[in-house]
Design brief:
Helices cover about 15% and strands about 30% of the residues. With about 200 residues, it is of the alpha+beta class. It has 2 domains: about 5-10 and about 100-190, no CATH class; about 20-100, no CATH class.
Protein backbone atom coordinates (compact mmCIF):
# COMPACT_ATOMS: atom_id res chain seq x y z
CA UNK A 1 0.00 0.00 0.00
CA UNK A 2 1.24 3.51 -0.70
CA UNK A 3 1.07 6.44 1.68
CA UNK A 4 -0.88 8.72 -0.67
CA UNK A 5 -3.40 6.10 -1.83
CA UNK A 6 -5.96 6.69 0.90
CA UNK A 7 -7.30 9.76 2.65
CA UNK A 8 -7.84 9.39 6.42
CA UNK A 9 -11.28 9.86 7.88
CA UNK A 10 -11.98 13.30 9.35
CA UNK A 11 -12.70 12.29 12.93
CA UNK A 12 -14.24 14.45 15.71
CA UNK A 13 -12.20 14.98 18.86
CA UNK A 14 -12.76 12.65 21.81
CA UNK A 15 -14.73 13.97 24.79
CA UNK A 16 -12.63 12.94 27.79
CA UNK A 17 -13.70 12.40 31.37
CA UNK A 18 -12.22 15.12 33.60
CA UNK A 19 -8.77 13.85 34.68
CA UNK A 20 -9.30 15.47 38.09
CA UNK A 21 -11.75 12.60 38.70
CA UNK A 22 -9.25 9.85 37.85
CA UNK A 23 -7.99 9.20 41.38
CA UNK A 24 -11.48 8.80 42.85
CA UNK A 25 -12.67 6.75 39.88
CA UNK A 26 -9.63 4.46 40.07
CA UNK A 27 -10.50 3.73 43.69
CA UNK A 28 -14.18 3.18 42.88
CA UNK A 29 -13.53 0.77 40.02
CA UNK A 30 -10.38 -0.86 41.51
CA UNK A 31 -8.35 0.33 38.53
CA UNK A 32 -4.58 0.21 38.48
CA UNK A 33 -4.56 3.30 36.28
CA UNK A 34 -6.84 5.62 34.30
CA UNK A 35 -5.74 7.72 31.35
CA UNK A 36 -7.20 9.97 28.68
CA UNK A 37 -8.49 8.35 25.52
CA UNK A 38 -6.79 9.22 22.21
CA UNK A 39 -8.30 11.96 20.06
CA UNK A 40 -9.60 9.66 17.34
CA UNK A 41 -12.29 8.05 19.54
CA UNK A 42 -14.59 11.04 19.08
CA UNK A 43 -16.72 9.32 16.44
CA UNK A 44 -18.55 7.10 18.90
CA UNK A 45 -22.32 7.56 19.25
CA UNK A 46 -23.64 8.25 21.81
CA UNK A 47 -20.76 10.67 22.45
CA UNK A 48 -20.23 9.88 26.12
CA UNK A 49 -17.19 11.33 27.90
CA UNK A 50 -14.65 8.51 28.02
CA UNK A 51 -11.45 7.34 29.73
CA UNK A 52 -9.38 4.18 29.46
CA UNK A 53 -8.75 1.98 32.50
CA UNK A 54 -6.30 -0.76 33.42
CA UNK A 55 -7.55 -3.33 35.91
CA UNK A 56 -5.68 -6.28 37.46
CA UNK A 57 -6.67 -9.68 36.00
CA UNK A 58 -7.19 -11.06 39.51
CA UNK A 59 -9.95 -8.50 40.04
CA UNK A 60 -11.58 -8.78 36.63
CA UNK A 61 -11.70 -11.86 34.40
CA UNK A 62 -14.74 -10.87 32.31
CA UNK A 63 -12.98 -9.38 29.31
CA UNK A 64 -11.79 -10.11 25.78
CA UNK A 65 -8.94 -7.67 26.24
CA UNK A 66 -6.35 -9.48 28.38
CA UNK A 67 -2.87 -7.98 28.08
CA UNK A 68 0.20 -10.19 28.09
CA UNK A 69 3.31 -9.85 30.16
CA UNK A 70 4.37 -10.95 33.63
CA UNK A 71 1.69 -8.81 35.30
CA UNK A 72 -1.63 -9.54 33.62
CA UNK A 73 -4.05 -6.67 33.20
CA UNK A 74 -7.38 -6.07 31.49
CA UNK A 75 -7.86 -2.79 29.62
CA UNK A 76 -11.39 -1.45 29.98
CA UNK A 77 -13.39 1.60 28.93
CA UNK A 78 -14.97 4.00 31.39
CA UNK A 79 -17.85 6.17 30.18
CA UNK A 80 -19.88 8.89 31.85
CA UNK A 81 -23.65 8.85 31.35
CA UNK A 82 -25.12 12.05 32.78
CA UNK A 83 -23.69 12.01 36.34
CA UNK A 84 -22.97 8.28 36.54
CA UNK A 85 -19.93 6.27 35.45
CA UNK A 86 -20.07 2.86 33.77
CA UNK A 87 -17.26 0.41 33.03
CA UNK A 88 -17.37 -1.39 29.66
CA UNK A 89 -15.68 -4.69 30.42
CA UNK A 90 -15.87 -6.67 27.19
CA UNK A 91 -16.80 -6.60 23.53
CA UNK A 92 -20.42 -7.61 24.13
CA UNK A 93 -20.89 -4.57 26.38
CA UNK A 94 -19.09 -2.37 23.83
CA UNK A 95 -21.47 -3.54 21.10
CA UNK A 96 -24.51 -3.02 23.33
CA UNK A 97 -23.36 0.54 24.12
CA UNK A 98 -22.49 1.78 20.63
CA UNK A 99 -24.14 -0.36 17.92
CA UNK A 100 -25.41 0.25 15.32
CA UNK A 101 -22.32 1.71 13.65
CA UNK A 102 -23.53 4.37 11.23
CA UNK A 103 -20.57 6.43 9.99
CA UNK A 104 -16.93 6.16 8.96
CA UNK A 105 -15.97 8.21 12.02
CA UNK A 106 -17.76 5.83 14.35
CA UNK A 107 -16.35 2.76 12.56
CA UNK A 108 -12.82 4.06 13.14
CA UNK A 109 -13.38 4.70 16.86
CA UNK A 110 -15.29 1.47 17.39
CA UNK A 111 -12.72 -0.69 15.58
CA UNK A 112 -9.93 0.75 17.72
CA UNK A 113 -11.73 -0.02 20.97
CA UNK A 114 -12.92 -3.44 19.81
CA UNK A 115 -9.54 -4.70 18.55
CA UNK A 116 -7.20 -2.66 20.80
CA UNK A 117 -5.37 -1.64 17.60
CA UNK A 118 -4.41 1.98 16.90
CA UNK A 119 -4.48 4.49 14.06
CA UNK A 120 -1.54 6.27 12.44
CA UNK A 121 -2.41 9.50 10.62
CA UNK A 122 1.02 11.14 10.39
CA UNK A 123 3.40 9.76 7.76
CA UNK A 124 6.28 11.01 9.93
CA UNK A 125 5.60 7.96 12.13
CA UNK A 126 7.15 5.80 9.38
CA UNK A 127 10.82 6.61 9.98
CA UNK A 128 13.48 5.85 7.40
CA UNK A 129 15.44 4.03 10.11
CA UNK A 130 12.72 1.38 10.45
CA UNK A 131 12.97 -1.98 8.72
CA UNK A 132 9.99 -2.49 6.38
CA UNK A 133 8.67 -5.83 5.22
CA UNK A 134 7.33 -4.78 1.84
CA UNK A 135 6.26 -1.23 0.95
CA UNK A 136 5.93 1.56 3.49
CA UNK A 137 2.38 1.17 4.79
CA UNK A 138 -0.49 3.54 4.17
CA UNK A 139 -1.73 5.81 6.93
CA UNK A 140 -4.97 4.73 8.59
CA UNK A 141 -8.21 5.14 6.66
CA UNK A 142 -11.84 4.01 6.56
CA UNK A 143 -13.86 2.99 3.50
CA UNK A 144 -17.57 2.24 3.30
CA UNK A 145 -17.99 -0.76 1.04
CA UNK A 146 -20.92 -3.16 0.45
CA UNK A 147 -22.77 -2.10 3.58
CA UNK A 148 -19.87 -2.29 6.03
CA UNK A 149 -16.71 -0.35 6.91
CA UNK A 150 -13.13 -1.32 6.11
CA UNK A 151 -10.73 0.20 8.65
CA UNK A 152 -6.94 0.17 8.24
CA UNK A 153 -5.18 0.10 11.61
CA UNK A 154 -1.96 -1.02 13.29
CA UNK A 155 -0.90 -3.07 16.26
CA UNK A 156 2.37 -3.47 18.12
CA UNK A 157 3.83 -6.51 19.84
CA UNK A 158 4.82 -5.14 23.22
CA UNK A 159 5.83 -8.29 25.07
CA UNK A 160 8.54 -10.81 24.23
CA UNK A 161 11.89 -10.28 22.53
CA UNK A 162 10.56 -9.25 19.11
CA UNK A 163 8.51 -6.07 18.67
CA UNK A 164 7.11 -5.74 15.15
CA UNK A 165 4.34 -3.40 14.10
CA UNK A 166 1.47 -5.08 12.27
CA UNK A 167 -0.73 -3.62 9.57
CA UNK A 168 -4.35 -4.75 9.87
CA UNK A 169 -7.52 -4.48 7.82
CA UNK A 170 -10.62 -4.67 9.99
CA UNK A 171 -14.22 -5.01 8.80
CA UNK A 172 -16.84 -3.30 10.96
CA UNK A 173 -20.46 -4.24 10.37
CA UNK A 174 -23.33 -1.88 11.16
CA UNK A 175 -24.46 -4.45 13.75
CA UNK A 176 -21.28 -3.83 15.75
CA UNK A 177 -19.70 -7.14 14.80
CA UNK A 178 -16.04 -6.93 13.80
CA UNK A 179 -13.88 -9.18 11.64
CA UNK A 180 -10.10 -8.95 11.23
CA UNK A 181 -9.63 -9.58 7.51
CA UNK A 182 -5.85 -9.29 7.43
CA UNK A 183 -3.03 -8.75 9.91
CA UNK A 184 0.57 -8.94 8.78
CA UNK A 185 4.00 -7.82 9.93
CA UNK A 186 4.66 -4.40 8.43
CA UNK A 187 7.76 -2.87 9.99
CA UNK A 188 9.95 -2.77 13.09
CA UNK A 189 12.37 -0.47 14.87
CA UNK A 190 15.91 -1.98 14.77
CA UNK A 191 16.68 -0.20 18.05
CA UNK A 192 14.26 -2.60 19.74
CA UNK A 193 15.87 -5.76 18.37
CA UNK A 194 16.59 -8.29 21.14
CA UNK A 195 14.85 -6.06 23.70
CA UNK A 196 12.95 -8.49 25.90
CA UNK A 197 9.86 -7.20 27.70
CA UNK A 198 7.77 -9.18 30.19
Amino acid sequence: MCIACNVPVDYPTTINIDSNMFKALAIKFLARELWKAPDYLGGLEPAYPIALADIDCLISRDTNWMSGGFICSTPKILIKKQNDYTLISNRAELKKTYAPITSEQEALSYAILYTRFFAIFDIAFFKSSYTYFGETPSISYVKFENGSYLVHLFSYQQFGCSHPYYSALVKVYKSGDVEILKKEVSFEDPKQSNLCVD
